[in-house]
Amino acid sequence: MIFKKSILNNNLLLFACTLFFVVVILYFEIRVLNLEGTNDKLVSEVAIVRKQILVNNEASIPSPIIGGGAGGGALVEVPNVNLRDRKDLVVIYNRVPKTGSTSFINVAYDLCRLNSYHVLHINVTGNMHVLSLANQARFAFNVSKWDSIKPALYHGHIAYVDFDKFGVNLKPVWINLIRRPLDRLVSYYYFLRYGDDFRPYLVRRKHGDKVTFDECVEKKQPDCHPDNMWLQVPFFCGHSALCWEPGNKWALEEAKRNLISHYLLVGVTEEMEEFIRLLEVTLPSFFQGASKHYLSSKKSHLRRTVQKADPSPSTIKKIQDSKVWQMEQELYDFALAQFHFMRKRTLGLSASNKTSQFTTERSQQFMYEKIRPK
């Protein structure tokens, strides 16, 4: 009897020990599973952040960092995303006539094969700058849906087109150049009479007319009327009827709004090299190598008007007294101030110093922290 009771006690002890070990093993397995789940969640969060980051120039900008800070956990360096992955990128350059656009766009043509994108010229009947409403819609849908041609840079002498108006998903990147309005008018005046060195064989509309710009202003002829300067404002204003009304104040304000809200970058003809350098930093998938190519391939002086005389001080005074010149000049000054701001923030250049090599862009970093939930 005593022997049987001893065996029973031993069995109970063995069962208790076995149960204890099973519970311990289950406890540690649950802990391991929880740790693995936490690790998977962290990896997932890092992956999500990686997908959301698009850094403009992987060659010159340090990698961003996530995490860190107060309660943010360990720092995690996130690799830069190569902009060449943006196969759907569309850039539109609605080039204003006589602003140096030929010099710039030829750089884009020279680089398109090397940087793997397409360049397309928008050729409008009669060189008209305003598209019909139907053609605006077709243009917006064509650019949005023509996937086989992306990434692409479109260029042409057309006014700004509001893609949102037509309900398309694509948001193109707009760029442009602007020039001192009187310089642009004088250049265009002589261009119509003498042509340029880009296509010297073409006979221009005013070929043979020897009247100088000064004489034209003195005689109050239509070719030099200040209203002819009204072009840069409407190009940025767009397709509203008021945009094309010379001297319209609303058009000027709309042009400024569009320049700030819808254009990635607007440069000035007088500082073309810095404009190209900014694009090279900001859109390397299109403009990598553009600065060196622009300076070394003689593209910086394409399409010079063959013969051009500077206007006299009295002529300049008469033009500057006009409302149109004052408003066009206001837009130019507005664009110039914005361009200098972007140049200083991106290239580290001030108006008096043009030798910096992207110092601000190289030294600036950004990071994400306090990511929740953990």
UniProtKB/TrEMBL annotation:
A Pfam family matched in the record: Sulfotransfer_2
GO cellular component: Golgi membrane
Location relative to the cell: Golgi apparatus membrane
InterPro entries in UniProt: Heparan_SO4_2-O-STrfase (IPR007734), P-loop_NTPase (IPR027417), Sulfotransferase (IPR005331)
Membrane topology designation: Single-pass type II membrane protein
Biological process terms in GO annotation: heparan sulfate proteoglycan biosynthetic process
PROSITE patterns (alphabetical): PROKAR_LIPOPROTEIN
Listed name of the protein: Heparin sulfate O-sulfotransferase
Gene: LOC113213296
